[in-house]
Amino acid sequence: MSEQKKTRTTVDIYGQQYSIIGSESTSFIRLVASIVDDKMREIGEKNPSLDSSKLAVLTAVNVVHDYLKVKDELEALQTKILNEKG
Known about the structure:
Blueprint (H helix, E strand, L loop, with lengths): L6 E7 L2 E7 L3 H21 L5 H34 L1
Antiparallel strand pairs: 1-2
Helix pairs in contact: 1-2
């Protein structure tokens, strides 16, 4: 069983540097970090009184919400395709 090579990538999210270790490419990790940073800045602009911890939690809630909506849409499309084939 072969292990995937892990890489360490340093990213900047909302003014803080984080070292992320993963098997994904550096460009993918940077893309993820950029999306998180953009979302935090978007929410932070609308809620300037939030401290960074609350902002991070609110960002996580928003991202998971978006993920679940997309997941539901994907499942609905897969079901529709299967029903059309059957």
